[in-house]
Design goal:
Shape: elongated
Bound molecules: zinc ion
Largest sheet: 2 strands, antiparallel
Number of domains: 2
Structural class: alpha+beta
Radius of gyration: 25 Å
Helix content: 25-40%
Strand order of the largest sheet: 1-4
Strand content: 25-35%
Length: 107
Amino acid sequence: MSEALKRAAQAVVVNWAHPGELAAAVRTLALVLQDDTPPKPAPDLLDTPVCPYCGSDSVTQDATAAYNPDSGKWELVDICDTVWCNTCGRDTSRGTIPRREYEAAHR
Ligand SMILES: [Zn+2]
């Protein structure tokens, strides 16, 4: 917990019985919490699956979805073997490869 977060949380406790100051303390705490939230790590783009023929990441894979009456949503139940590249139009069912592998092979 950062010092700024500790001070903002303490201000909320101290001003608990003073509605005017409490509102300001809660707003400050909310702003500090936003700043204290660690950023999500960026996905490693070199792990992106790409077409082994052209290197495009515009690939799609057939799948099966079933309706779940409990959630009220269609949910993925199976991923099929058929993979298609939308850029070069090839069947890439033998598998996509990570972008790092494609770039290493095409230097
Ligand atoms: Zn392709």
